[in-house]
Predict the 3D structure of the following.
Amino acid sequence: MKVDHYSNLKNTNRTRFWQIDAVRGLAVVGMVIYHLLFDLEYLFQLPLNVSHLPLIALARSVAVTFILLIGFSVALKFETIKRYGPKQVILAFVKKAVTISLYALLITLVTYLIFPQGTIIFGILHFISLSLVLLIPFLYLRSNGLVALLATVTFVLGLAVPNVTASHSWLLILGMTSSTFSSLDYFPLLPWFAVVLFGLVLGRKYSPALQKPSPSKTPPLFLYRIVSKLGKHSLPIYLWHQPVLWTILFVIKYFL
């Protein structure tokens, strides 16, 4: 009997955990709040100091949450699809990476046209798409201790790399600096890939608990359900929240 691995693999995409979506949803709320304050400061010249504490701490905590959940979610996904073999695993994550990279390229194009001085060449989506591919070998490295060690080394390297001047523009994705480089959104591999690896370790640790049969497949409270919905649709919210915010604030500033 022929087994349709492709159909089975597609069905695994429907497996979601509301706990992860809820955490991601809280990060979405934090992202929208921070970007609203950023836009208010930019458009209305309000002294909100979004680049300083405490607001910059909000921005960083949101970023860490999103990136940590990349590794966490990949660990869970791997547990559901590894039985189909390495070829299907690679295909699944590469397809996801390509999809996200297309959105990333769209953001690069839009920011180049609207904010050429701050064009996003390696923002959060660029980082996520590349990380999904780079993570694949680590999925077959079953020692959590070794992955955690490599994550620590990556993080330490990330602290040193900004002191190195990039001799070529492509080295900027590693975190090297350039006096001519400026971007509205920038997440270099060093040190941020370390956060992904730590997320992978956490995902492996808590995967068995999350995959146990539960009496409830939905969040227990209405508020959690709302937050989980936001987390489930985090990508479209990320893509559209700034255009919506800018449209509203632009109308308020110039027409009201």
The two ends are 68 Å apart (CA to CA). Residues 165 and 177 are 5 Å apart (CA to CA). Residues 5-223+230-255 form one domain. The chain has a mean pLDDT of 90.
